[in-house]
Write a structure and sequence with these properties.
The protein is of the alpha/beta class. The chain has two domains: 2-165, Rossmann fold (3-Layer(aba) Sandwich), CATH 3.40.50.720; 170-276, Orthogonal Bundle (6-phosphogluconate dehydrogenase C-terminal fold), CATH 1.10.3660.10. Helices cover 50% and strands 12% of the residues. It has helices at 10-21, 33-41, 70-77, 95-101, 145-157, 167-193, 198-207, 210-216, 223-256, 260-276, and strands spanning 2-6, 25-29, 47-49, 60-63, 86-89, 108-113, 134-138, 161-164. An eight-stranded mixed beta sheet has the order 3-2-1-4-5-6-7-8, with helices on both faces. Helix 6 (167-193) crosses helix 9. The protein is elongated, with a radius of gyration of 21 Å. The relative contact order is 0.11.
Length: 288
């Protein structure tokens, strides 16, 4: 199969690596000639360039650009595609993207591989990044079953865990487990920064270990990503923030009342929830 990858960063480059090793032909498109040259040098792509017209022979095209550039890129790419080409993306919000693109390209099927690393760019691309990681597809009732089956075959070749769901269901689910944690983590960092005693603040920084690092990691990430997620998934993030606010208010009340029995029961309950969510198993590291 001839696959086009638009955007040769960590995700696009890693997809290209795996699919090329599986025997597919890969055409890569990037805004940077240096990136294209490096991708060819590393054996990530078969051919590449800066022009989206290179995608015309491709049977499948994957848009691996930032969320706020997806629709504009689809508009630029579609005039160059074959009529039966499959178009998909890797964005972490699906409903508004699907709603924007499918009217002018019915063969668009939203996608979201939930994997990543802290590194970015073509230099970070690696084989097997998606192995045993969730890869979501969000077909609509209008999606061609044969095209969906072709995408599913490609995802299976990655060794990923394939999920099919409605775009709106996807966005509500990832708001809880990916988007909301960014803002919870950022708020914790902001609260800590308000410690009025500089000596206490410095001491806490020196004493901080893995628990603090894990809890605040996503809040210290890419600011543009967090704001972009709010722009495209605002209602679901707001719903989560308000529910979280209610939980905090409940905890504050129990602490103020020194209700040890209620606090103990609350933590036993949360312990059980975490166990049921199987969060101690290895999971994807992407915040989005």
């Amino acid at each position: 199969m001839h696959i086009g990858i638009v955007g040769l960063g960590l995700i696009g480059g890693s997809l290209a690596l795996d699919w090329r090793r599986a025997g597919h032909t890969i055409t890569g498109v990037s805004r940077s000639g240096e990136t294209v040259a490096l991708a060819q040098e590393r054996g990530v792509i078969d051919r590449g360039g800066l022009e989206v017209s290179l995608l015309h022979p491709c049977e499948v095209v994957v848009l691996c650009v930032p969320l706020d550039r997806l629709v504009a890129m689809a508009i630029a790419v579609c005039p160059h595609l074959k009529p039966d080409a499959i178009l998909t993306d890797v964005g972490s919000v699906k409903a508004p993207v699907v709603q924007a693109i499918t009217p002018f390209w019915p063969g668009f099927i939203g996608g979201h591989p939930m994997a990543g690393t802290a590194e970015q760019g073509i230099q970070a691309a690696q084989p097997h990044l998606f192995r045993q990681r969730p890869y979501v597809l969000t077909p609509t009732p209008q999606s061609d079953p044969r095209q969906l089956a072709q995408l599913q075959t490609l995802i299976q070749a990655l060794g990923a865990q394939e999920f099919l769901c409605d775009p709106h269901a996807h966005d509500r689910a990832v708001a809880w487990i990916s988007h909301l944690p960014i803002w919870v983590s950022a708020a914790l960092l902001g609260a800590f920064a308000q410690e009025p005693d500089p000596q206490i603040y410095a001491l806490a920084q020196q004493l901080a270990s893995s628990g603090w690092r894990d809890t605040t990691r996503v809040g210290g990430g890419n600011p543009e990503l967090g704001v972009c997620l709010v722009h495209y998934n605002r209602e679901n993030i707001l719903r989560g923030l308000r529910q979280y606010q209610q939980e905090l208010a409940q905890v504050i009340g129990m602490v103020e009342q020194q209700d040890i029995a209620a606090l103990t029961a609350y933590l036993h309950h949360s312990q059980g929830l975490r166990h049921n969510h199987r969060l101690d198993q290895e999971i994807g590291s992407s915040p989005a």
